[in-house]
Amino acid sequence: MCALKGTRARFVRCFAIDRLCVWTRIIRMGAWGTGIFADDSAADLRDDYRKLIGDGVTGPQATDRLIAQWAPQRDPDLAPVFWLALALTQWSCGRLEERVKAEALRVIADGSAIQPWAGGPDERKRQAVLQGTKRKLQSPQPPERKIKKRVLASCDWQRGDLIGYRLITGDYVVLRMLDQHVDQGGAYPVCELLDWRGPEISAAGLPDTIAVREFRDCGGAKRFMIIPAGKRFLKDRLQHLNLKHALDENYSRVPRGRSNPTRVITWKKFDKLLDLSLGMS
Prior knowledge:
With about 280 residues, the chain is α+β, with helices and mostly antiparallel strands. It is about 30% helix and about 20% strand. The chain is built from 6 helices and 8 strands; from the N terminus they run ββαααααββββββα. The chain has a 6-stranded mixed β-sheet with strand order 7-3-4-5-6-8, with no helix packed on it. A two-stranded antiparallel ribbon has the order 1-2. α3 crosses α4.
């Protein structure tokens, strides 16, 4: 679930079949709806702005940095997404700048914000969204809000590390670290569960060739990424073992662009995952 920043629109030409024009324009890579933030780039921009403010950067400085980073003036397809997302984000934070407001209203007025939807089945929905956005930006914004500094998730586990986890029953199971998933929220461990359980983990460890448990409800997938929510309640149940498996460079990895099914779970619900999906409880 990782969005790519700076995705760009792609278009293909309409073609005629028996004098009917078939809708073949791809709105934007990363866009999934008509809403302002139903777009990966818009959502990323919102996160970027809030992070900068949370880190103590002033509003105008944050705007300058984002303009320099995203360069909306160089990309007519990105410009409407950039200015509308930034304007709405600033408005909701009580920090709307006049220059940003002016640009957002301009892309609505000149039609560039509706252009990708023009003539398509969602044109009316998009137009309604834009008119609602215009009314909001022209209305009094709320008082300035304090944005808390974001605490990024961290992970010091390395590829091949073995992690002991004590079940509610008292037995242990062992996770094997595969990779770190890194995004704007921080770093998260991607692991698999070894097909072993026992009352204690031998200092000699487990063989590299040991089998790996598959999800019973996910078509044989084995990988899972763990979000830290709830981890503080499990400190006494997690044990970073002084053991490591030497994994082949390509083990559990696939070339970019190919599917590599990975479940996403929180520590808070990890026991449920082990029980219902992996048959360990």
